[in-house]
Amino acid sequence: MIRPDLSLPIPETITSAHFIGVGGSGMSGLARMFLDRGIRVSGSDRADSAALRDLAARGATVYVGHDAAHLGDADTVVHTGAIWPENPEFVTAKERGLHVIHRSQALHWLIGGRRLVSVAGAHGKTTSTGMIVTALRALEVDPTFVNGGVIADLGASSGTGSDDLVVIEADESDGTFELYDTAVALITNVDPDHLDHYGSRDAFDAAFARFADAASEAVVISSDDAGARAVRERITHANVVTFGEDSAADVRLSGIRTDGPVAFTLTADGESVDVQLRVPGAHNAVNAAGAVAVLRVLGHSLADAARAVEGFGGTVRRFELHGVAQGVSVYDDYAHHPTEVAAALSAARTVVGEGRIIAIQQPHTYSRTQEMYREFAEVLETHADHTVMLDVYGAREDPVPGVTGELVSGAFADPEHVHYVPDWQAAADYTARIARPGDYVITLGCGNVYQIIPQVLEALSRTEAAAV
């Protein structure tokens, strides 16, 4: 992993930019915005994808694989922390003296001093960002936005708007959320993660407090999340707005109903409004409360903000239905932390009815799996009827001996609730054998686990044909 060096100068002018790892949702979104600015764009990634093809159709030069020759005449190279230091494009760019900047610095350059809403938190920030963006558009505001995932109704993770307002998902994982000149900061929650970067919980909390206090207009923060409450005690900002079920919250959430698309009541300044979302799950009621709180800070009424948030249709890879075979619905969710897994499976439970939930879990990174395997096992055993456990998606990390999917499955209290199957085809076939009509199968993880879905659907179809 390459840690971002935020002390490096950001160029005043960029005429030709090359993106290393351009296929990711965040990086491809940035590349599209550079194209919107009339900047020449090239980029590479290790595998072909729809994102690469879309960028090529928009005029970018894209490559599959990494090679120093791909740099062309770029004057600036944009990278993520997920690439290896030995990446030939990264190494050559340094040797040639090009401007080499982290994606957060590229985003800072694009924002260019406009009024900024930054959404941070361990969980829920992609959904919350999507809610704010779609609601603003419904309120006839046209913001520029950069999200960590594709907003389903817009079909994009980024867009260049005409108004002087920018909404971004700000990444706390590597500290880069402190780089931005934020006007309104939203903190969804503060669940300890990324301690490999921060070193301690105290340092993690301190970073959130600095992010909040640096906001020029307001801080919006959860009143319910224990981590957020701890950070709130550190914040000295004069304008802090809270949201949640706590009776003292400025935007109070009550009466959550989860028997279908989640419904609830929001109350602020003595006014109440009933809300029903298009997406399920109590966690989305909380996300909506935070989004509405931000919209009120931006000048919109409670009623208008709530009506606008109701139109949010979700983000790609957040409880996304991919297909139905043999009466079995197959979903995908990006959840890769125990808290996120619990939220995703709890949302599924509210709509599955009499069916069962079969989770296909791909642990993400060796460090997180080694640190949290017991928590993953407990959450999966509690919220899923059965779990099919794959092996770890290492991402930027080298394998750690003994840290596999079997480490998680071995921590289940009842081994009958889990089956460790490292081979994907065998996992798909096993899932098809145990699934029954009415069940939900949900792939979980932020790696490439979603790519097993066609195998699962095909295996289900074969099972159906054999049954007939």
What does this structure look like?
The chain has 468 residues and is of the alpha/beta class. It has three domains: 91 residues, NAD(P)-binding Rossmann-like Domain (Rossmann fold); 200 residues, Mur-like, catalytic domain (UDP-N-acetylmuramoyl-L-alanine:D-glutamate ligase, 3-Layer(aba) Sandwich), CATH 3.40.1190.10; 147 residues, Mur ligase, C-terminal domain (Protein-Tyrosine Phosphatase, Chain A, Alpha-Beta Complex). The chain is built from 15 helices and 21 strands. The strands form three sheets. The chain has a ten-stranded mixed sheet with strand order 8-7-9-6-10-11-12-13-14-15, sandwiched between helices. A six-stranded mixed sheet has the order 16-17-21-18-19-20, sandwiched between helices. A five-stranded parallel sheet has the order 3-2-1-4-5, sandwiched between helices. Helix 5 crosses helix 9. The protein is globular. The model has no long low-confidence stretch (mean pLDDT 91). Cell wall formation. Pathway: Cell wall biogenesis; peptidoglycan biosynthesis. This is UDP-N-acetylmuramate--L-alanine ligase. Its EC number is 6.3.2.8. Its main location: cytoplasm.
